[in-house]
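Re: your question from the hallway

Yes, I did run it. Sequences:
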Amino acid sequence: MTLPQRLKAENLACERGGRLVFSNVNFTLNAGEMLELRGANGSGKSSLLRLLAGLNLASAGLISYENGSPDLSLAEQAHYIGHADANKPALTVSENLNFWTTFLGGSQTQLQAFNLEVLADDQALLLSSGQRRRLALSRLHCAHRPVWLLDEPDVGLDSASRLILQNHIARHLDEGGIALVATHAEFGFKAAKTLNMGERQ
Amino acid sequence: MMRGAAFALIKRDMLLARKQGGGAGAALGFILAVMVLVPLAIGPEQALLQRIAPGMMWLALLLAVLLTSDRMFQQDFEDGSLDVMSMGHLPFELVTLIKALAHWLTVGLPLALITPPLGLLLNIDVYQMPTLWGTMILGSLALSMLASIGGAVTAGLRRGGLLVSLLILPFYVPVLIFGVAAATASLGPTSSTPALIVLSAITLMSVVVAPWASATALKAYLR
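Structure:
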């Protein structure tokens, strides 16, 4: 029996290029909870997600992740889907996804998660931007990781794919995962906490 | 699990090198151009050509590897792949080591294999060929490793080529000196073993230091 996880941020601040992007950010997320990050362009939503993914340094504050795997860092227990989709145009859809599955320590590629089976042998070069987004999002199912960091994951998705994404997030939360989603649209999770990053500082 | 990730990465990089092309092909063209043009520029004096041949071949190999180095991390940096790679279970130093190794397997090694036969255009002594092959295979590994430092430092720059050359050239000097020394000594009365040993030492050290240096540079970029 594993204890429920908890992700906690206290007084986080982030500086980028000498400019204070945000300061005094606090939140606590228990297993099964989701945090929607709202705020104007440049208010630091992406910086906060990158910070949690270990890709930025916090200039102040503390991030603690309780009851995860003790010998893994938070970044190694999190999936980060940013604006860049990390796929190679020269490789096919399945080659791209197979690589990430093996690299991230998963066992089976889940092409069907975002209905990409029919595109499996197409070069990623030929995909539309929405399909490319779905390929990036498929990484969420490459390997099980309890924390999902999604930076505007619904950009370019059609309404059917948005629904699929919402279902995936809901199932992830049901299974005791944690999700942080930066978004401008209403995601419509009743349980979701909201963190307003405010205006550009 | 880590071994699986390492193999997946090297397989992907070699597949990409094959599918995207560019790197090794352009470098090979460069070496061929040098080999063909040097006799025309220097003149057809065979003894002179034979004397300068090892140096010219090493120079061509070195500059050809340098030519391809700025692309080593650039694309992965721009499309976000490095972000995800830094979040894997594989230590980031191993990621850079494997990417440099893939560069060697797709660019450095093929060039090192093809350059000595091309040296026949410069009238090299056939007895020099084994030594040239040996030193170039060994030395090109050091060249690829050192090039990865330059590639990492300039990953976020649009036109990093010039900067890579300036940054990496000083590191290439010892490889060049001892590579040429070993090849030259193989003809003369002195033994080429000392130069070979020093070259091996340089190669081993670059394999240890370069991945760490490029990982540090790339992490600074990601942040």
